[in-house]
């Protein structure tokens, strides 16, 4: 039981993609956008809890194929987010002193959606439920 506690603690305190996404959105677009990312992230936990109550999380844990599909989709989404971030950086390389332009700012809905999708496609979360 002690080992299980330590493994759970290590997984819970490790910085994952959800934390990094929230940090990036907060630092680049402000506190409100960070909170909207957090709200999307927490709403996806409701989906995970609903699946757990309905017994779907057990099916997900037992099905190697379904778990692999979610893992691959999550990886593709993280690569997409990384590409967007790097392409924005390269585009703004010469504009170090200027504030970010309005078209580069994300909307509240985009922040909510990115937090929701990031957590829904995170296979580590489904293992906890």
UniProtKB/TrEMBL annotation:
Q: What is its main location?
A: membrane
Name a GO CC annotation attached to this entry: plasma membrane
Q: Where are the transmembrane segments?
A: 6-23, 35-59, 65-83
MF terms from GO for this chain are: amino acid transmembrane transporter activity
Q: Which Pfam families match?
A: LysE
Keyword list, A-Z: Cell membrane, Membrane, Transmembrane, Transmembrane helix
Locations listed in the record:
Cell membrane
Highest taxon above the source species: Bacteria
InterPro entries per UniProt: LeuE-type
Q: How does it sit in the membrane?
A: Multi-pass membrane protein
**Keyword hit for Transmembrane:** yes
Keyword Membrane (UniProt): yes
Query: Mind telling me which PANTHER family this protein's record contains?
Result: ARGININE EXPORTER PROTEIN ARGO, ARGININE EXPORTER PROTEIN ARGO-RELATED
Name of the featured protein? LysE family translocator
Q: Which organism is it from?
A: Paenactinomyces guangxiensis
């Amino acid at each position: 039981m002690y080992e299980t506690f330590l493994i759970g603690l290590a997984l819970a305190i490790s910085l994952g993609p959800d934390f990094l996404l929230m940090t990036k959105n907060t630092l680049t677009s402000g506190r409100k956008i960070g909170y909207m990312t957090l709200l999307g992230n927490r709403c996806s936990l409701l989906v995970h809890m609903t699946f757990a109550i309905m017994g779907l999380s057990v099916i997900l844990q037992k099905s190697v194929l379904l778990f692999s599909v979610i893992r691959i989709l999550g990886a593709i989404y993280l690569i997409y987010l990384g590409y967007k971030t790097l392409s924005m950086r390269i585009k703004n390389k010469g504009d170090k002193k200027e504030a970010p332009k309005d078209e580069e700012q994300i909307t509240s809905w985009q922040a909510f959606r990115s937090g929701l999708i990031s957590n829904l496609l995170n296979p580590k979360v489904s293992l906890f439920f």
